[in-house]
Amino acid sequence: MTSNPLLKTGNQKWIIALRILAGGPLTLFGLMHLVGAMPMQPLLEEAGLPSPSLMAILTPLVQLLAGLSLLLGAFTRVGAALAIATMAGALVTHIKIPNDKWPDVAAWAENPDAWNANPVYMAEPTPMMLMAIVILLLSAALIYLGAGAFSLDHKLASAEPAA
Questions:
Q1: Which residues, in sequence order, are bridge partners of residue 31?
Q2: Does some domain include residue 4?
Q3: How far apart are CA 15 and CA 54, in angstroms?
């Protein structure tokens, strides 16, 4: 077994379910934010967070990296820590935007200039906040448990010579 604490994991097979439940949505939302299907910039602007145009690019990249790390079980603890950071940011965004001032990102994606001139709002998508909480909790569990049996971490840890 490995002496590297980032790779250390047990043989539990059920941990893959936690990795899929956390990594799947992170990967999907990271991709959706990056390709513009679900723009992040209007959300960050409405929440009053710093550097919304920069963060609208960096955050989805981190989400995507974290999601892929969890799905593959590669450096799972690092991926889980990144997931916790992005989900904490999502929770801050949800808390800072009033319920009736949630930007309609579909309208923004169609024409950002028109949206800026005449913003369109909708009710807060509460399930998204709940999903952020669940992903955050699952990621915390993965930091504690490691990646489990069906993971690159387990494969790499098993291949290392004993110290």
A1: none
A2: no
A3: 34
In the chain, how many domains are there? 1
Helix (H, G, I), strand (E, B) or coil at 121: strand
DSSP one-letter code for 100: G
Confirm if 61 and 34 have CB atoms less than 8 A apart.
yes
- The percentage of the chain sitting over the pLDDT mark of 70, rounded to a whole number, equals 96
Q: Count Cα atoms within 13 angstroms, Cβ side, for 84.
A: 14
Counted residue by residue, the chain has a size of 163
- Report yes or no on whether pTM surpasses 0.85: yes
DSSP per residue, 92-115: HHHHHS-GGGEE-HHHHHH-HHHH
Containing structural domain, residue 144: 15-159
Q: Does 72 fall in a domain?
A: yes
**99-119 pLDDT per residue, tens:** 878 888 888 888 888 888 888
Residue 7 lies in a domain: no
Q: Look up residue 103 and give its DSSP letter.
A: E
